[in-house]
Structure formats: C-alpha cells, structure tokens
Amino acid sequence: MNPVTPPAAVQLPEATIRATVRLPIRLADGSEAQALAYSFHGLADARDHLALKFGQPGPQPLVRLHSECMTGDVFGSLRCDCGPQLQEALRLMSQEGGYLLYLRQEGRGIGLYSKIDAYRLQELGYDTYTANLELGHGLDDRDYTPAAQMLRAMGVDDLELLTNNPDKRTQLERMGIRVSGCRLTGVYPNEHNKGYLLAKALRTQHRIELGQTEE
C-alpha cells in the first residue's frame, strides 16, 4: 500500500501587529495579572480579534483560542461553560505564561442575535447544534484562520493548546501551526448546561468525560 500523504498546509495570508499595550487584569480570585494586548492588521475576516500575552512564554507556549461569549464571559450565563473556561485560561496564563486569543466569534460564529434565537429553540427541546442547523447555520461556523495569522504574527508556530475541542487543533495544523499537545480544560457543569455539555461531547467529539458532568 502506498503511504497516505497528509494534506498540504493552507497558505496563510500575512497579518501584522497593529499595536501593543499593557493591560492589567483582575482575575476571578481578586488577584492582579499583567498582560500585553495585541491588535492586528490584515486578519482574514477583518474582525477585531485580540491576543493577550502573559509572562515570557517558552518555545512551546500554552495557547487558548477563546471564542467570544457575551452571555457567559460578561453576564455569567449558566447556559454554557464559556465564562469559567475563560477564567481558567486567564489563571493558567498568569501562572505559566502563554497567549490567550479572544476571537470575535459569538455563538460558534453565528452572532449574538442568532445565538439568542438558538437559545429560544433550545427551550423548545432542540440541542445546541440542532438549533443552529434549524436557523440555517452549520454545526460550528468558526474559522480559525485569523487565529493562525495572529500566532504567526507574534512568532508562535509551535504550541500547547488548551482545549477540549479537536477542531481547533485540526484547523491550526492544517494551516501550518504545530500543536505539540493538548491540555484539557476543566468541566463546569450546572443544572442549566448539562445538556449543552453532553451535546458537545456526543456531536462534535469534545473531550469531555461525561461522568464529570454529574454533580
């Protein structure tokens, strides 16, 4: 049998750093962390994505791709696990150094208002993915091309990824970013998000131990 040739890496359009600024951050435990915030020129989707650098990251830094979730990150919604995952990532980065990429991809890329519409469908019995499909979207509409561009612009092409989502690794590697390993995020169940966590594990193979969702 002939060996299977892996697909060629996607050619990334070049992005450049637009500006950097110091950003002191208050963590969930009340302590303070220091970050360097980056903005960019030339991102593929022209959105205002932001990168935060903590400490002096090593040659294979810890990296978190965090998609914006206004309801979870800002208002503390219990319908998802986004807020706790963001706080976990900030804590780890402040302790170990690394990069947090805050990506403006609300609702797995469908936008805030469509996410609210999806929530309404979930209240009628649809799971989080079927609701998106009913609204004419894909299971997950996120494209991590801008994330790969941001990493390249900051000189990061080999990293450890903080995620339970295998698609993040797949997309980054397809674009030529080497992922040396994945560190799983915590599981943050509550009475409102158990169905959401189960759907992520069963429908898009998030590496969530279902037993961890039992309170």
From TrEMBL:
Its EC number is 3.5.4.25. Keywords: GTP-binding, Hydrolase, Metal-binding, Nucleotide-binding, Riboflavin biosynthesis, Zinc. CDD domains: GTP_cyclohydro2. Residues 37-181 form the GTP cyclohydrolase II domain. It is an enzyme of class 3 (hydrolase). Pathway: Cofactor biosynthesis; riboflavin biosynthesis; 5-amino-6-(D-ribitylamino)uracil from GTP: step 1/4. GO terms for cellular component: cytosol. Its cofactor is Zn(2+). It catalyses: GTP + 4 H2O = 2,5-diamino-6-hydroxy-4-(5-phosphoribosylamino)-pyrimidine + formate + 2 phosphate + 3 H(+). GO terms for molecular function: GTP binding; GTP cyclohydrolase II activity; metal ion binding. One of its GO terms (biological process) is riboflavin biosynthetic process. InterPro entries: GTP_cyclohydro_II (IPR032677), RibA (IPR000926), RibA-like_sf (IPR036144). It comes from the Bacteria. This is GTP cyclohydrolase II. It comes from Achromobacter animicus. The lineage of its organism: Bacteria, Pseudomonadati, Pseudomonadota, Betaproteobacteria, Burkholderiales. The gene is ribA.
